C-alpha cells in the first residue's frame, strides 16, 4: 500500500469514528424524528422529571432531517407525565436517596412535592450523620489500638537488658508521647460516641414518624 493510500485509509477510519461518535450523541435519529409521537415523548420525559429544555435537543437533532417537533403535543404530554413524577411519594424517595430537588414541577404540585422531598432529605442527612460518625469512630478506635500496641512494645523495650540510661530516657519519653496521644484519641472517641448516640436517636425518631 502506497503512502497516499495509507493516508486515505486513516482519514476514512477517522471520519467513520467521528460519524459514529456524532450518531451516539444524537438524542433522536432520522426514523425517530420522522415517526415521533411527540405527546408520548413528552409524557415519558415528564415521568422521568426531565427539564423543559430537553425538547431543544430534539429540535436540534430533528432539524438535520427537516423535521420540526410538535411542541404543543410534546408540552401537553410532558405536563401529563409531570403529574405522575411530581407526586409526594416520589419527592420523598428522591430526598431520602440524597438526590437534588428538581425544579420541574408545576406550581400546583410543587409545594407538596417539595415538602415530601424535604422530609426524605432530613432522613437522608440523619442517616449520613450516623454513618459518617460511626466511620470516624471506628477509625479512631483503630488508631487507639495501634497506639496501645506501640506503647506495649515500648514498655517491653524499657525493661530489656543492656540498655544505657539515655536509651531508657528516650523510651520513657516516647511512652509519654504515646500516652498523651492516646488520651487525646480517647477523648475524641468519647465525644464521637456521644454524637453517635444523638444522631442515632434523631434517625430513629425520623424513621418512626
Topology of this protein?
Blueprint: H1 3-25, H2 30-35, H3 38-47, H4 54-63, H5 71-85, H6 88-96, H7 107-158, H8 165-208
Helix pairs in contact: 3-5, 6-7, 7-8
Commentary on this structure:
- With 209 residues, this protein is an all-alpha fold.
- The model is unreliable at 11-26 (pLDDT under 50).
- It is built from 8 helices and no strands.
- α3 packs parallel to α5 and α6 packs parallel to α7 (107-158).
- The protein folds into 2 domains: 22-86, no CATH class; 122-208.
- It has helices at 3-25, 30-35, 38-47, 54-63, 71-85, 88-96, 107-158, 165-208.
- 81% of the residues lie in helices and 0% in strands.
- It starts with a helix and ends with a helix.
Let me know the largest β-sheet: none
What quaternary form is this? single chain
Order of helices and strands: HHHHHHHH
Shape: elongated
Number of strands: 0
Number of domains: 2
Summed up, the helix count is 8
The radius of gyration computed from the alpha-carbon positions, rounded to a whole number of angstroms, is 32 Å
Q: Helix share of residues?
A: over 70%
Mean pLDDT: 88
Give a short summary of the structure.
By secondary structure, the chain is an all-alpha fold.
List keywords for this structure.
8 helices; 209 residues; 0% strand; mainly alpha
